[in-house]
Amino acid sequence: MAKVISMAEAVDLIQDGMSIMVAGFWGVGTPEKLIDALVAKGTKNLTGIAISTALGEKGIGKLVKNRQFKKVIVSYIGRNPATMQQYEEGTLEIEFVPQGTLAERIRAGGFGLGGILTPTGVGTEIEQGKQRITVDGCDYLLEKPLRADVALLKAAKADLSGNLIYRRAARNTNPIMAAAAKVTIAVADEIVATGMIDPDDVMTPGIFVDYLVQG
Amino acid sequence: MDYKELIARRVAQEFKDGDFVNLGIGIPTLVGNYIPAGVRVFFHSENGFTHIGPMPKNEDERDPELINASDQHVTILPGGAFFDSAVSFGIIRGGHLDATVLGALEVDEEGNLANWKIPGKKTVGIGGGMDLVAGAKRVIIAMEHTSKGVPKIVKKCQIPLTGVRCVDLIVTELAVIEITGRGLMLKEVAPGVTVDRVLAATDARLEIAPDLKTMTV
User: Over 90: is that where the pLDDT of B122 sits?
Assistant: First the structure.
């Protein structure tokens, strides 16, 4: 059973210094209202894990612009000048991860794996400090799992058991982040009674979702 | 025809009916406009779907939750499917894409590719590029032959790599060059372009194909 809470209660679950996973791709699939509330509260020294730092006015980018991160783990920072500016000032640490590797590290974090072996980045500077493992003649990098204190998701529809449905390209990192955090909060456009979503249609099983917020 | 259209039209001839393809930003994106009649190519969007459709005709047709990986509003064609990021990159890494078309800063004789970082300059990151070159069945580079006259096709890449021995074909406004495993082979020259001009614009050993052709677009 997921607990339905207010936006203010959801923001209070995120404390200074925590790591947060923020779902979304250019803000699509990001719980914008929860991000806005987190910006308003001004929670600091966060570590952010996301596909990119999005835009200054959209998605996780608003938290970057408001200087709420000490570190971001992302595949891309283009289109958000605040990220580059803070990086150059030395106030923001950036760990660049190839996008597919980032997805798999999050998946590994949520699914009890000690890491994943990927051919991505073999022979590039991404390999530095990582173990190269050869399996049946092919080279792979050992990439370690990623977990976070809180995952922030955006669903189109949720039932009171926490089962989630996404729309269109908003799915992206939502299903994998759902499993990879100690606390998972999903903001849903629509919350319905248990039983109102057919189990066949569930995209993220409710077992991964702790809190629901009406979006 | 401008040089970008020439490159895009030539790359578009590389696909066969039914291929799944991922296009990078810049010149590669234009390739989708020139797929020959009778060839169905399905485009993959790394933010999580296949069968990218045309951009919506007007504001009303825009779906706020349907964008491509470059944050442009698009549509999805019948037959397409949405999926999460792990599946999207499973498709990429798992060899399920017939080809990817990307730009480059440098490509060398071994087929090494550099396209994400210049030492001493700002990088915006990697995105999905390293996964695409590691996993797609064919890696096609669509780029200008030189950068302001400085060759981009070189003996050995000098800037940080995106992938090792990953490039299969290079298409520029001057030439079509194949990476054979033994080196670079000049397969085609653009209309009105001499072999000498290609050689002068290339800082790598270029073998000339016995059946050298003129590019037809």
Answer: no
Using an 8 Å CB-CB cutoff, list chain A residues near B127.
52, 75-76, 98-99
List pLDDT tens digits, range A184-198: 999 999 999 999 999
Q: Does B34 touch chain A (CB under 8 A)?
A: no
Using the Cα atoms of residue A135, residue B133, residue B81 and residue A207 in order, give the sign of their dihedral: positive
Which of A28, A121, A174 faces B84 most closely, judged by CB atoms? A174
Give me the pLDDT at residue A1, please.
82
Task: Tally A–B CB contacts below 8 A.
Answer: 137
Nearest Cα of chain B lies from the Cα of A101 at a distance, in angstroms, of 8
Confirm or reject contact between B131 and chain A (CB < 8 A): yes
Model's pTM, two decimal places?
A: 0.97
Fold observed for domain A5-214:
Glutaconate Coenzyme A-transferase (3.40.1080)
Report d(CA A188, CA A180) in Å as an integer: 19
Provide the β-strand partners of residue A94: A72
Inter-chain residue contact A26 with B49, CB threshold 8 Å: no
Percentage of chain B exceeding pLDDT 90:
95
Report ipTM for this prediction: 0.97
Comparing B148 with A1, the larger pLDDT belongs to B148
Please check whether residue B119 is in contact with residue B109, taking contact to mean a CB–CB distance below 8 angstroms.
no
